[in-house]
Automatic annotation (TrEMBL):
Site (Important for catalysis): Y141, K192
Protein family according to the UniProt entry: Belongs to the isocitrate and isopropylmalate dehydrogenases family. LeuB type 1 subfamily.
GO terms of molecular function: 3-isopropylmalate dehydrogenase activity; magnesium ion binding; NAD binding
The protein's name in its UniProt record: 3-isopropylmalate dehydrogenase
Cofactor details (free text): Binds 1 Mg(2+) or Mn(2+) ion per subunit.
EC number of this enzyme: 1.1.1.85
Subcellular location: Cytoplasm
Cofactor: Mg(2+); Mn(2+)
Catalytic activities: (2R,3S)-3-isopropylmalate + NAD(+) = 4-methyl-2-oxopentanoate + CO2 + NADH
Binding site for substrate: R96, R106, R134, D224
Naturally occurring in which organism (per UniProt): Imhoffiella purpurea
GO cellular component entries: cytosol
Subunit comment: Homodimer.
Keywords per UniProt: Amino-acid biosynthesis, Branched-chain amino acid biosynthesis, Cytoplasm, Leucine biosynthesis, Magnesium, Manganese, Metal-binding, NAD, Oxidoreductase
Length: 360
């Protein structure tokens, strides 16, 4: 049965990197490895410009009717002056909430060829393989009340609410523990339980839920220490599970261990197994339109899509092997460039992955 994929490229470098990921999907379709149908939709600033809404109803409806969504990135300076309800980021958050994509998997894996591209010493990062499990539809991103109000004094007050229910914490912990059972069986839950009640409860629920997983070695860190440990000795971690905002910050930090944020893919899953797949980086307005963005995070997101939503783990392995081969060939976009390597642009990198897939 053909699988339906909705493609929402978004803004900035979004269309540039998605075009390369689509080449990879189409190559796999052409050689008979997968059976897919592609549909395109509007999201973010591009959608606002076209129809006045960063998440048009048709896009969310098409996403709900798809087996998977491939997203580039949203946002940019052009839309910053808009009211928060109309900003591109609202489109992305609306998609996550609308599809119930509560589990965000952000693997940080160092390709050995890039050990020299990290800002950290090669011995600190070599062999790195961490899975960050980020809660994606709760916490301070969605908590009520929120807003900006004017006090009687005339001064303004901005406020957000960090809130979690026990069931929200339990289900994301179960995702992390299930993943860890297939890996190193170690989970570090990251919170701020020393200060914030919501995460004091998070820690209690993490411990209680772990009772069903006697083989899991569960540890806990406060987020400030966790961020320090990530750059001090990242290989101590196997799976990390944390809140929406802490996961956002820690995954950008972990990205740098792998050489560049242009290398980190992600999967966002709901309880029904539907998923949205996107690089963890943004629309990179500073390099957009120049053909220099690294498409590998998006291409690796396609591999995650094949593995988690399309039941095509073999094709996913082939994409990852093709990426490794291209790195072996010495091809590098600017963000992962190092001495002796050959610098290429976005399109050349995408073409090289497609050629490697075909065994050329
Ligand atoms: P960013 O991730 O877009 O860029 C941070 C830095 O990393 C920039 O220097 C950029 O050039 C570089 N970079 C990012 N992706 C790259 C790639 N593939 N290849 C090479 N270099 C890359 O973060 P930002 O600058 O803080 O945000 C820019 C816009 O993107 C904002 O509007 C923000 O809200 C949005 N954003 C969107 C997403 C998303 O769509 N998932 C994620 C993060 C930020
Ligand atoms: C990410 C981004 C988003 C987030 C923004 C653009 C809403 O930073 O996907 O990491 O904060 O989740
Ligand atoms: Mn982020």
């Amino acid at each position: 049965m053909s699988k339906k994929i909705l493609v929402v490229a978004g803004d900035g470098i979004g269309p540039e990197i998605v075009a390369e990921a689509l080449k990879v999907l189409q190559a796999l379709q052409a050689d008979g490895s997968i059976d897919i149908s592609l549909e395109e939709g509007l999201i973010g600033g591009a959608a606002y410009d076209a129809v006045g809404d960063p998440l048009p109803e048709e896009t969310l409806a098409a996403a709900k009717a798809s087996d998977a969504v491939l997203l580039g990135a949203v946002g940019g300076p052009k839309w910053e002056p808009l009211h928060i309800s109309k900003r591109p980021e609202k489109g992305l958050l609306g998609m996550r909430a609308g599809l119930g994509l509560f589990a965000n998997l952000r693997p940080a894996i160092l390709y050995p060829q890039l050990a020299g591209a990290s800002t950290l010493k090669p011995e600190i990062v070599s062999g790195l393989d961490i899975m960050i499990v980020r809660e994606l539809t709760g916490g301070i991103y969605f908590g009520q009340p929120r807003g900006i109000e004017t006090l009687p004094s005339g001064e303004r007050r901005g406020f957000n609410t960090l809130v979690y229910t026990e069931s929200e914490v339990e289900r994301i912990c179960r995702v992390a523990y299930d993943i860890a059972m297939k890996r190193g069986k170690k989970v570090c839950s990251v919170d701020k339980a020393n200060v914030l009640e919501s995460t004091e409860m998070w820690r209690e629920v993490a411990i209680k839920t772990a009772a069903d997983y006697p083989e899991i070695e569960l540890s806990h860190l406060y987020v400030d220490n966790a961020s320090m440990q990530l750059v001090r000795a990242p290989k101590q971690f196997d799976v990390m599970v944390t809140t929406n905002m802490f996961g956002d910050i820690l995954s950008d930090c972990a990205a740098m261990l792998t050489g560049s944020i242009g290398m980190l893919p992600s999967a966002s899953l709901n309880a029904e197994g539907q998923g949205m797949y996107e690089p963890i980086h943004g629309s990179a307005p500073d390099i957009a339109g120049r053909g220099v963005a690294n498409p590998l995070a998006t291409i690796l997101s396609v591999a995650m899509m094949l593995r988690y939503s399309l039941d095509a783990a073999g094709a996913a392995d082939r994409i990852e092997a093709a990426v490794s081969k291209v790195l072996d060939q010495g091809l590098r976009t600017g963000d992962i460039m190092s001495e002796g390597m050959r610098q290429v642009g976005t399109v050349e990198m995408g073409d090289a992955v497609v050629a490697a897939l075909a065994g050329e």
